[in-house]
Amino acid sequence: MSLQNTSSSRSLAPVFRLLGLLSITFAMASPVLAQTDASNENTFFKSTREFFTQGEWYASWGYDKTHYHPSDVHVSQPSLNNDFVVHNMQGHDEFKSPVCCTPDNVRVGRFFDENKNWALDLSLDHTKFTSTLNQTALVTGTNAGGVGLKTLSTQYFTYLLHNGLNHVMVSALYRKPLLGNLEEGSSLSLIAKVGTGLAIVHPEIDINGQPNSVGNKNLTNLLGTNSGWWRIVGTSTGEELGFRYVPVKPVYLELTNKQIYTSMRNIPVYKGTASQNVRSNEMVMSVGYIF
Length: 291
Hints:
Oligomer: single chain
CATH topology of the largest domain: Porin
Number of domains: 2
Order of helices and strands: HEEEEEEEEEEEEEEE
Radius of gyration: 31 Å
Largest sheet: 8 strands, antiparallel, barrel
Distance between the termini: 84 Å
Shape: elongated
Strand content: over 45%
CATH class of the largest domain: Mainly Beta
Strand order of the largest sheet: 1-5-6-9-10-13-14-15
Number of helices: 1
């Protein structure tokens, strides 16, 4: 019996030695691992801090004037047996002079490269679309109010995307210095952007005397795709070109022209939905701050 126990002990001896070696290794490595984790954590917070405190940031607020190309609006109201298209509808932004906060534009961005030529730009274009009242448009399909050449009156068809037809985009920005030094005042640069994002609208649409309803504007009914005072209804893609002038750093002025293509679906109307693809041309004047 003792010989058998001795034999078993000898056969397990390599296992015990291996476990002992692993224990010693782990004990020696634990401080190193802890130091590595702390180093990684410190690197993360350092990188995050440097992202927000270093590099050139900018922010601006501006005013826009928008012109819309004629567009088709498709309306579907299944329970009313209405399915029709208003062709080549004229629309406008209805603002002829600057008014504070409506319509307006907000830009925030950060340059990433050493020469400060490339930036990531986040923008909000707060525009409005109004169907021109009493215009004559061709209406095809089925509509209880009639089809053919129709006058778009308040009793037949009014279509407003107020407060508004909003474009929220992320864009790549390229800046090319033309005059002066970017680090000093009196510098002029070419600005070019291309980006895409969401189309968010607040619709006020009246069809055959029946207005749509999106509920009250409150925290529980603020934004959504199938509900909400503001509706996410599609995408907007744009390209922008213009100039940025820095009279005295850190203040700058910017004048750009922006071409936008917006594709919208599921716009709420009375007992149905509408869809629209529209192209717009937007002139933007902004004042900004570099930090």
